[in-house]
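2 proteins. here.
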Amino acid sequence: MTTMLDASADFKSYICLICGWIYNEAEGAPNDGLAPGTRWADVPDDWLCPECHVTKVEFAMNEF
C-alpha cells in the first residue's frame, strides 16, 4: 500500500545554476504554468526560470 508520503518521496527538485531558484516537482510552479506534480521531464524545453529567465538546460537535479 502506497501512502501519500511515499508518493511524494518520488518527486525530485531541480536548482537553477544561475540564480539558485528551485523547482520542486511536487509543488510545481502554478504561477508559471506548471501544475503541482509536473515532472521535470514534462516541463517544456522553452520554459524559462521565473527568476532569471534561463531555459531548463541551466538546471541541475538538487540532491541535497
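next one coming up
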Amino acid sequence: MSKLNKDILFLIFEELQDDPKSLFSCLMVNRLWCENAIPILWKNPWCYNDINYNNKNYLFIIIASYLPDNIKESISKLGIQLPSFSYQSLLFDYLSFCRSININTINTIICIGSPLTYNQFLLQREFYDLFTKKFLELKYLDLKSIKHQIFYFPEASRFRFESLCELKCDTSTESSFFYGLAHFSQYIQRLIIDNNIFSKVDFGITKLIEVQKNLKYFEWNDISTNSNVRKNPYKEILLALGKKADNINHLKLFFMYPDCTLQKVFPNFHKLKTLIINRFNDFNEDQLRMCVYRDLEILYINHYELKAASIIIENSGEHLKKIYIDQNYNHRFHHDNFEEYSLILIRKIYKNCSSIEYLCLPYYPSMDHFIEIEKLLKVCQNLKTLLIYKIMNEIETEGKLLNNGEELLKILIKSTPTNLREIVFLYDFNFSLEVLEKFLGKWKGHALSILTITNPAYKAENYVKLINKYKNDGVIKDFRHESYKNAVNIVKINFKI
C-alpha cells in the first residue's frame, strides 16, 4: 500500500474526505501519504463533527502564524498571545489548500486567542483579510451564527464567490448580502437555509435562488415560530424553487406552517432522488397522484402521512433504497385510520420496493400486520437495516407486550433477509429468553447489531448471560440499550437523514 503512486493515493484519499479519523491515520504512514492527505483534510477543515474546535489550539496557532509581523506586534499589545514562528516554518502551506469558510467554527477558534469581544473582532478582521489572500477559490461557505458582516471588511471583495458550490445560511443574515452574492455566485449546487425569523419575506434569498443555473440540493429548516406569520409564508421561495425543478435532485423541507404553493410546485420536481418533507398532510389524493418521482432513492415522511407515503411509493418505488417514516415518542398512540393506512403502506413497499436496503416501519400489533410484515421480509431480500416501531391505541399489558414481541421475533426467525445486519426496536418490545435464544441462533455466521430503547429486562442476569454468549460466538456484533432520543439520533445518522 505504501508504494501506491501519488495519483492513486489522491483518488483513494478523496473517497475518505468524510472520514477524518482515517485521513488522520494516513498522515502517519510516510511523507508521500502525508503530502496527499493534507490537501484533502485542509480543503474544508471546519466541517468535521467529531472534532471539538474549542480546544484546538493548533488551528489557531497555524492560522495566526501567517499574520504579518506588524499585525502580530499590534495584536500582542492587546494581550493576545500569538505564536512566535512564521508560516514559512510550517511543513505545508496549509491555508493555500483551504476552499471553505465556516463562520461559527472560525469564531470558536478565534475565541481561543482572547475572551474579549473587541479583540475577537480585530482577530476576525485580520483572519478574513488573510483568507482572501491565501484561498485560491471559495467552494464552501457557512454563514450560520454570523456576528459581523465580514464581507464589509476592507479586503473581502477579493473572495472568488463565482466558484461557490455550497452555501449554508440563515434568514437572520442581511438580505443585502444575498443580493450581492446573487451577482457573483450563480453555480451553487447545494443551498441549505435555516429559517430563524418569518416577519417578512427575504427577497434576497429568493433572488439568489432565481439566478442559480446548477442547483441540485435544496434544504429549508424552520427552527423558530412566529405567531404573527404572514399568509403563505413560503410562497416566493417555493415559486423560485419550482423554476429550478428540472435540476434539483435532493429536496429537504421542514415547514411549520401550511402553504398551498406546495401543491402547485411539487409535481414539477420529477428528477428527485431524495425527498425529505414534513407537510404532505396538506395534499388531497388527486394532488398526491400528480407527484411522480421515478428516480427517487430516499423518502422521509411523517407517520401521520402514511396515505401520502403509500401513494408516492406506488408511483415512484422502483429505485427506492431508503424509506424513513418519522415517529415521535409523545405520539406513539393511535391516530385516525392508522391501522388501515399502515397495512396499505406495508403492501405498497413489498410490491414496489424490492430493492429497499434501509427501512423504518411503523405497524399496529395485529395478526394482519404480522402477516404483511412477513411477506415484506420475504420479498425485500436486500434489506440491511430495519427499524420497527408500534403505534398503539392503548397501553399494552405485560402479557400483550410479551406476546406481541414474541410474534414479531418468530416472523424474523422465519423470514428475515440474509443481508440484514441491523435491527432497531423502538418503544416497548419484550422477548422471552427462549424465543430470543432461538432468534439469535438463526444468525450464526453473521454479525448482527441490535439496538433497543432502555428496557430493564435485558439487564437481568439470564439475559446478559445469553447476549454475551452470542457476542462471544460472533453472532451479535452489538446489543445496545439507549434512550429513545439517542436511539433515533443513531438511526438517523445511519440513514443519513
